Amino acid sequence: MERRIIQGAGWCAVTESGKLMEYISGDDFGQSGVILAGKVERMMKGLNCAFVDIGRKKNGFLPLQETGGSFTGGAVHSGETLLLQVKKEETGDKGAFLTRDITLPGRLVIIMPMNRYIGVSGRVTDESVRERLKLAGKQIAGGRFGLVMRNAAEKSDETDLRNEAETIFTQWQILEQRAKSSGKPGTVYYQIDPLERLKEDYAGEDFELVVAGEKPSPDILRQIHESHERTICLKNGGNIVIDRCEAMTVIDVNTASSAGCVSKEQTVTETNLEACESIAQQVRLRDLNGIILIDFIDMDTERDRNLVSDRLYECFRADRIKTVIHGWTKLGLLEMTRKRK
What we know:
There is one protein chain. This protein is an alpha+beta fold. Helix content is about 30%, strand content about 30%. It has helices spanning about 125-140, 160-180, 195-200, 220-225, 265-285, 300-315; strands at about 5, 10-15, 20-25, 35-45, 50-55, 60-65, 80-90, 95-100, 105, 110, 120, 145-150, 185-190, 210, 230-235, 240-245, 250-255, 290-295, 325-330, 335-340. Helix 5 (about 265-285) runs parallel beside helix 6. The protein has 6 helices and 20 strands. It has 3 domains: about 1-30 and about 195-225, Nucleotidyltransferase, domain 5; about 35-190, no CATH class; about 225-340.
């Protein structure tokens, strides 16, 4: 696979073997990941959440309980000021979705100052390497913060890992002091720009950095336009239909005018396999996340269903955002989740 990270004037993109997989325009850079000080204004214990003044027109939404058992923050109290991170930007009438479990990414490691979890990127598959990195992570963190070893850490020595972790942790301590001295809601730290984030997320993997002009190429523009369409045509005549709902995204696979295979069973399987590649591209390009249900064309055998789920897993292996293929439901739908980021 030939991966390119393309730097344009006010935009950036990722292509893999010529296919556009990610596109970020200047209008879409947003503030997702920004760290800010927020004052708890209203507790909604019945909904297990709080509304927080973050210095914007709309109050942010903060769950009272963080996911995972290694978060070290205590209970939330009305009127107190907290350091928070934007997990998902505000949309429509909804304010920004906030978290107290802050993450600070570097090229080699991710620091979680309000957590004590020690982990290793899922892209590191060698068990002996994972164990080595996890042990190093525990020694570096020393119980002061949580830490995740990124894919690029596999080829780095412990000194480099420790130096980056200490630098980021020092940055966090400065942010804490800045928030205390400010005493009012508002932004205290902006995340790095999207291009640098892409380079960090793909560090340790082969990619070519390409500098482009003010506008994307006609081929990239064509693929951007396609990502706004509800129906995406497949080469063999089939198609996929993508519908974003409030609680999830539903993707329907159809044979349409598919032809050329010897039997109906083979046509169905080949169309489903081809759809996997298109689904992975569109999910990444549109930045779909949360629950995703895929209604593949009905298959008669467990063997064919395994072929399709395995192909989908392979198609998402290159995704820098955590994606989990959960398997088939009783209704024959393939269920997957993609982390909000």
